[in-house]
Design goal:
Elements (H helix, E strand, L loop, with lengths): L7 H4 E5 H5 L11 H7 L8 H33 L8 E7 L5 H12 L8 E5 L7 H7 L13 H12 L5 E7 L4 E10 L4 E5 L20 E7 L1 H16 L18 H24 L8 E5 L5 E7 L2
Parallel strand pairs: 2-6, 2-7, 3-6, 7-8
Antiparallel strand pairs: 1-9, 4-5, 8-9
Helix pairs in contact: 4-5, 8-9
Length: about 300
């Protein structure tokens, strides 16, 4: 129909695993097994073959995009007769709880930092922009932690605005998954890096009444996708691993979970998924998938089987 919007399939180029892996071309693998082990998160069974097949083609693509953007800034500065400002290239990484965003972002950071034209790559997470627990409790939304309303979006936008304006020194708050809260007085510092990766649940979120969105500051965005039953199982597996590790810490917010039996822990994890994380995925996160520049789909075994790249 004339004037109708193209469907999702028309907006994206779709690659199976083998086709995407072939786009690596001659991009060298700069990570070894020891480095990869340090970058992996809990229950993230990723190996160097996965890095070669999925991450290296993406690293090559982003290197080309960053180079093109840097050249555009040079052209603009030449036209205006000004000194080219150093404006970081910003990449957003979105997706559900337990889908593997943190591991993905860390590996991508390590690979992008190996390219000579943009050696400084910073990584920040939206966890640091959650309202403190005291504020969430006062608003009665502690059980909505991770939902859009639990974030200090105004502060996040201010930080992104400063980064994209070329500010020399930008600070962002820090979140602790042990105490499950913002760390008072601690900051991560961004000093004009070449690339900034922002990882979080709702980075592609739009609001009905807002006129400024987090994604307005992205040069490129990635959505990590998987079937919900698989993500739920990954969440349960991670919960069981945390019960044997982080939850054992006396300072852990969730230390009361450490004494649960296997059956109790599984029931608890599935309840949390059903009432919080799964609900957030369906209501807020999944609807933003089609706004991403790139969608990466993972199978039950965590292997990527499909990549979709938005057409220019």
């Amino acid at each position: 129909m004339p004037g109708s919007l193209p469907d999702v399939a028309d907006r994206y180029l779709t690659f199976d695993r083998a086709s995407w892996a072939g786009l690596r071309a001659a991009t060298a693998l700069t990570l070894g097994e020891p480095e990869l082990t340090k970058l992996k998160g809990l229950n993230a069974p990723i190996d160097l073959h996965e890095v070669e097949s999925v991450y290296l083609p993406l690293s090559r693509l982003l290197n080309l995009y960053v180079g093109a953007t840097q050249d555009l800034h040079k052209v603009s500065a030449t036209f205006l007769g000004t000194i080219k400002p150093k404006v970081p290239y910003v990449i957003g990484v979105a997706g559900s709880v337990a889908v593997g965003k943190s591991t993905f972002a860390r590996i991508l950071q390590a690979l992008l930092a190996q390219w000579p034209d943009h050696p400084t790559v910073d990584l920040i997470t939206t966890d640091g922009f959650l309202f403190p627990n005291a504020a969430l409790e006062a608003r009665g939304i502690m059980n909505r932690k991770g939902f859009p309303e639990s974030y200090d979006t105004r502060n996040l936008l201010q930080v992104l605005r400063a980064i994209k304006s070329g500010a020399e020194h930008v600070e962002a708050p820090v979140y602790s998954h042990v105490v499950y809260d913002i760390v008072d007085g601690e900051r991560v510092v961004i000093n004009q890096p070449d690339i900034v990766i922002l990882e979080g649940l709702n980075v592609l979120q739009t609001g009905e009444s807002a006129n400024e969105f987090v994604s307005d500051y992205f040069d490129f965005s990635i959505y990590l996708d998987a079937d919900e039953p698989d993500i739920e199982q990954w969440y349960v597996d991670r919960f069981l691993t945390l019960r044997e590790s982080v939850f054992q810490d006396p300072d852990s917010f969730f230390k009361f979970y450490a004494e649960l039996t296997d059956e109790e822990a599984i029931d608890t994890a599935r309840t949390i998924w059903r009432e919080i994380n799964g609900l957030n995925l369906r209501e807020n996160i999944l609807p933003t998938r089609e706004r991403a520049s790139l969608v990466i789909h993972k199978r039950r075994d965590h292997r990527v089987d499909r990549v979709q790249l938005r057409r220019l």
